[in-house]
Amino acid sequence: MFSEALTTLSLLSLLMFFFALFVAFAFxxxxxxxxxxxxxxxVIYTRSLPPxxxxxxxxxxNFLGVLLGGTAVAFGIVNLLPVDLLVDSRSGAALVMVLSLxxxxxxxxxxxxxxGLPVSSSHTLIGSILGVGMANSLWNGNGLxxxxxxxxxxxxxxxxxxxxxxxxxxALLLLLLKVFFRSPRLYAPPVGDxxxxxxxxxxxxATCGGVSFxxxxxxxxxxxxxxxxxxxxxFPLHYxxxxxxxxxAPAVLVTAGEVRKDYEKAEIPLPEKxxxxxxxxxxxxxxxxSFNDLPRNSETDVRWHxxxxxxxxxxxxxxxxxxxxxxxxxxxxxxxxxxxxLLPAVEYVPLWVVIGTALALGIGTTVGYKRxxxxxxxxxxxxxxxxxxxxxxxxxxxxxxxxxxxxxxxxSTTHVLNSGVAGTMVANKSxxxxxxxxxxxxxxxxxxxxxxxxxxxxxxxxxxLVG
Length: 467
Hints:
Largest sheet: none
Shape: globular
Mean pLDDT: 80
Number of strands: 0
Radius of gyration: 24 Å
Order of helices and strands: HHHHHHHHHHHHHHHHHH
Number of domains: 2
Low-confidence stretches: none
Structural class: mainly alpha
Helix content: over 70%
Number of helices: 18
């Protein structure tokens, strides 16, 4: 099926597509050694594991995190940019958009890694998406409507609050450890070849694995979201409906009828927007055994029309679920219809994308980690990390990131863990290095606007070149 899609592209578009794929996987590879260095810092600097086994262990857990972490965050990323903007048959705007956000993200991540500055790949990616969305909207004279601002608000709140949570909880956990575990050795930097006690070593190794798995489950999905933007941008008709389970078309048709019955049973008029989109679904999917039976024709856009109808129904059902004037039974039923019976038709990740992202992130973890590790372990606090600090910071980071992944919120591994380390330094009265913390804070503040400007500038330049 994928090979059929490739034949629809011209030679130039085909080359651009493979270049976009390469850059998307490169972003995730760079994310591996840029962000995951945070996970291995504690086990390396507390001598719980030598560097090589530590990064291999972390890379493996990152790989598993991507495979098992779900897709909620991926669609949180995709939905930042209204996907309709990627469907532009009149020009190369969609291709320029995808390439611009990819190049902006890779450029910023590589540059900050080179100077050893831990910045957020989440901020980088989101800033790049916002940059191309706003630039495209301004180019077309639509103001700033090219971005899903409701989704931005939700994502921005998660990125803003997570470092604060990391700082406070890590500091509190360290103070709690001091109450129950009073050995001074746990709260002093390792000396010479000293290694942690067996129990603490096990905790440090476990928390390193937890952060790595959590990073894979959250940041790996961001890579999936990038690749989905590439696929939808280049092949909107092919990837508009699930290719993982195209045989669910009859089930979607049945669900359309069931939604009508749900409203009839509750004796509530069916909203006009839902009725209109249900009619499209019922008309186009009638007698279809698979989504593959729908024509992939850019002139009729049937597949995209069906996708838009399904998305339209899910949006209205979500509004209905929040309407407390409706019976609770109806709202519960509509939630089930939306999440389990309709969304899987349009929100999916091809298996090869999952595996490719997992490999890129896992392999990336095993190289280039030293620059960031040194910053986190030696330059945040005035003393090197202690055993208890490492355990507290990573326990909080792993828990925070995993919860965010399960709720579909993209958070920054870098900022959660670094703020956690800073919190333990304050709680342990180790002091912090103001210069380093200031640099990290400034990077936190400026990454988003810098990537917005960089991606927007690249998009504008690209549009000028392609016309």
